[in-house]
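INSTRUCTION: Work out how this chain folds

Token vocabulary: learned, describes local backbone geometry

RECORD BEGINS BELOW THIS LINE
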Amino acid sequence: MIDNASLERHIGREEQSEDRADPERLRRLSALLDRRWSPADGMPPLGHFLLFPPNEIQSRIGADGHPLRDPGGMLPAISLPRRMWAGSRIQFEGIVEPGARLVRRSRLVSAVPKSGRSGHMVFCTVAHEIRATSGGPVLISEQQDIVYREAHQGPGLAPRPVMQPEFRAEHFSGRTVGPVELFRYSALTFNAHRIHYDREYARDAEGYEGLVVHGPFLATLMFDHLLQAAGGRRVLEFSFRAVSPSFDGEDLRFGATIEGDKVRLFVTNPVGLAMTGQARLAGS
């Protein structure tokens, strides 16, 4: 049962955390993307996803690997057990220099219950603003969508939505993500959700046919493809939306089409569309 009154009471709650754009973490992200890195290269693709990681103590970690839900926290303690990062809309308003000390202010802006073919869900949107700890303008602003869903039902695996891209891409690349890459990204982000490394749990508890590729990791790979297609032009805005899960060992295909300063993007897996994206570039 979803408590709508509780959802409404949480809207507007905030939290704040501090971190450093640690060059060693950024170097390791670049290594995961199969390239060498130095601080002179600037932030690697979506490097800010590595910052402000969860730091809950071990006794407060749940059976799925996520921190236990806290009624006093910014996010509601929603009873629906499955949680995923469904998408983000990001504006790169300034430059985050490697080594910079940063502060992130986060605020819950909406919590909307919905019902569909897959059962009851709650969609939460959190607004993040990242600044230097010394003050100054916003460097990165982001609206992050988080969805909570019912537990997987039935003895079989959960079916994947089957959709196809809505446009023909001009720039393509491909990649296969295996268990090692998933482990390395989980370690980089301190993400202990078991669907990314515990095959038996992913299958038996959540109904997935394999280890799940992290949504933010898939978005990072899509952003990396965007940078290659954009030929050095700076990305001002980027958004992504998860459509269907992708699993370890699958062939992933990345597509992009650039029209002036606007970019349309997609990722496909063997079933169909896995993620969509859009971006806005600085002038050529």
